[in-house]
Amino acid sequence: MVTIITERVILDGGSRVAHQIPYDNRFINLVRKLPDATWSRKMHYWHIADIDDIDDKIVNVFIDIANIEFRGRQSRKLIEKVRDIRQNKELKSHFIPKPSESVSIESVSNGNLVNGLSLRASEDIDKYRSWLESHRYPLTTVRTYTSMMAVFLKFVAPREANECDANDLTRMVHEYILPKGLSYSFQNQLISAVKKFYGEIYKQVIDPGEFTRPRTQHRLPNVLSKEEVKRVLGAPVNEKHRVILSVIYGCGLRRSEVIMLELQDLDRDRMLLSVRQSKGYKDRVVPVSPKLVEMIDSYMIRYRPKVYLFEGQYPGRRYSAGSVEKVFRMASEKAGIKKNITLHGLRHSYAT
To answer: 72 vs 8, 106, 275, CA distance in Å?
Structure first.
């Protein structure tokens, strides 16, 4: 999925919201729907009016066709909002209306989880939400856990939560989750949500320890041999492409991490690379070899990046995730790799 970069800029003394979008009529037509959308020939980006609810409008316009990268102080809140919307859309297909009830599955995506539930069950959901929020759980976790609990209460209705036991959760797994082929992740999240609910809201009613999780899935990732890695890394003719793939492999980076590297992240004195605000908003440092540092330095002398270590067509703008995927795919084909391997598999090859 394409990534759209959105950030606030100052133009002609006023605040605007700039968009970096692909040159594609689908995206251009969508951005034109936003307030006062204007194309800047000088800066080569679209910019729109910075009004109070503009962030929500951006999410609503692009959520279905693109990843949205918000830059600035509000980025984490907005990222959680995007994840929350996508997660709730997935939950729509898992909401269980009883045959005797006219429950719209849209109630899940609209955040109105109590539609079709009894008054007691609705109050239980509200209590659960309040408890999660008071304990500072992330917004996505609050929405996921309350949505999962609503799914569970719909399944056991007309019985109430205080009338249920561990057998009801087991029954839901066997009668609903497994027959529908729902994922291990869905089952695990449901169990986590129900266990937390009974452990905190109905402490005296049920022993949450009776709920057991499904067996953990252990899948071996597809990885490349050392010889295959050597062929892939040597395949690109373009120096930037070779260095990008070498950094992913040599430092074990994710795609999102390599494209967000900035010039100051490479510490040549300590031979370390700083990876900032990665998965789970965590920073970490990874060792970098002298040979890889030499490759990076040679690349920088030739390409002269301004902000990011790897920049795209325009100076100061990071290389796109889709382009990195394409580079790896073309390198794999040229190297004659027959395995069903992805860019993430190159990262796993680092660990081997």
So the answer is: 7, 32, 18
Enclosing domain of residue 303: 226-349
| Cα 243 from Cα 265, distance rounded (Å) | 16
The number of domains in the chain is 3
- Average the pLDDT over 277-282 and give the result: 64
Report the alpha-carbon distance of residue 147 to residue 190 in Å, rounded.
Answer: 9
In this structure, the answer to whether residues 149 and 186 fall within a common structural domain is yes
244 and 278, same domain (yes or no): yes
Query: Model's pTM, two decimal places?
Result: 0.47
**Cα–Cα–Cα angle for 81, 83, 85, rounded to 5 degrees:** 70
Same-domain pairing of 55 and 149: no
Residue with tokens 């929350």: 84
Same-domain check for residues 56 and 143? no
How many Cα atoms are found within 13 Å in the side-chain-facing hemisphere of 47? 18
pLDDT at 317: 87
**In the chain, how long is the greatest CA-to-CA distance?**
70
DSSP letters spanning 25-82: HHHHHHHTTSTT-EEETTTTEEEEE--TTHHHHHHHHHTTTEEEEE-STTHHHHHHHH
**Neighbour tally for 30: CB within 10 Å:** 20
Question: CA angle 307-264-10, nearest 5°?
Answer: 35
**Helix-helix angle 343-351:226-234, to 10 degrees:** 130
Q: Which pLDDT value is given to residue 334? A: 92
Quick: pLDDT tens for 120-173: 888 999 999 999 989 888 777 888 899 899 989 989 888 999 888 888 888 888
